[in-house]
Amino acid sequence: MTTINAATYPIHFDEKAYNELTSLISKKNYSSIFILVDDNTLEHCYPRFMQLFATDKPIEVIQIDAGEIHKNIETCMGVWNVMTELGADRKSLLITLGGGVITDLGGFVASTFKRGIDFVNIPTTLLSMVDASVGGKTGVDLGVLKNQIGVFANPEMIVIDAEYLHTVSTREIRSGTAEIIKYGMTHDIRLFNEIKDNDQVNIVDLIHRSIEIKNEVVLEDPKEQDIRKVLNWGHTIGHGVESYFLENPKKEALTHGEAIAIGMVCEAYLSSEILGFPEEKVSEIKEAIIKIYGKIAIEKNDFKAILELMKHDKKNVAGEINFVLLKDYEDFKINCKASEELIKKSLAFYNA
């Protein structure tokens, strides 16, 4: 697959990407290299990485616990302390080897350590390949509130190696597929059609196009002042659902993609009510999402708590919840408002 050039960094693909990484390290003459992993990527991904990566620089591996519940400032403090103890300086490089938690948290750690050191993202899950690692967003959660603390900071390079997808579960692949569906509905309907019409889709073929779309949007609006908000299609309600299921001991935590999939169904309903998005397409979205992700029980008693969590969404201004909604596939509008009653109706629609 051909290299995609972002604003200040390249996105390289397949095994040749490791040669580019070696060249970068040689050119920038880093003093030391730190590799951030979690329990899973240390076991399943690190051996492949070391097989393909060559350097004479000293390497230190820093391991954190896997999972969204560890994506917080306490984990960052642990990593900063270890880097300090191991003698990291402003000429050190941090390589993130993992999924969305590792790339988000690792980028934030690097961009704030000694006021900023270089980092390289090597995403190992579908979600992090097509979304989390690309676009310069870094950060951590504040309690159950998603990505409340962070900065915009670009990596020096991104390495996309689809072989790492063999190390993740089918559920994680489905989770990442939700972001590809998002790009399909907002920018290239072929992606959505490919997924909904085929039981056995070759996800690898869709990765490059998904990254192209995200990169095009980010190049136009790097700091999410305007058009980049479209990348939050399904995320306003989806993040509320994800946070609620994470904090409620009576609920089983959802993956990010499972929650965003629910959000897309609800926001398709809002799109129909507010912008006239065709009802048959709302039904098409709901049917496809439930076929792929199954049906998650969201009780009427859950609606109020989900709504409260949505009020912390980063797109909100002056306490008003802002949505990205569809007029049609590939035709969207940002900064849309919806009443609390209508939001509850959208959750009821998903439930029905």
Automatic annotation (TrEMBL):
Domain 3-dehydroquinate synthase N-terminal span(s) in chain numbering: 62-174
Cofactor: Zn(2+); NAD(+); Co(2+)
Keyword Lyase belongs to the record: yes
Domain 3-dehydroquinate synthase C-terminal: 176-316
GO biological process, one term: chorismate biosynthetic process
Molecular function via GO: 3-dehydroquinate synthase activity; metal ion binding; nucleotide binding
Record's keyword annotation contains Lyase: yes
Record's keyword terms, sorted: Cobalt, Lyase, Metal-binding, NAD, Nucleotide-binding, Zinc
Top-level enzyme category: lyase
Cited SUPFAM superfamilies: Dehydroquinate synthase-like
Pfam families from the UniProt entry: DHQ_synthase, DHQS_C
EC number: 4.2.3.4
GO cellular component: cytoplasm
Highest taxon of the lineage: Bacteria
CDD domains: DHQS (cd08195)
Record-linked InterPro entries: Dehydroquinate_synthase, DHQ_synth_AroB, DHQ_synth_fam, DHQS/DOIS_N, DHQS_C
Function in brief: Catalyzes the conversion of 3-deoxy-D-arabino-heptulosonate 7-phosphate (DAHP) to dehydroquinate (DHQ).
Name by which UniProt lists this protein: 3-dehydroquinate synthase
Source organism of the structure: Tenacibaculum lutimaris
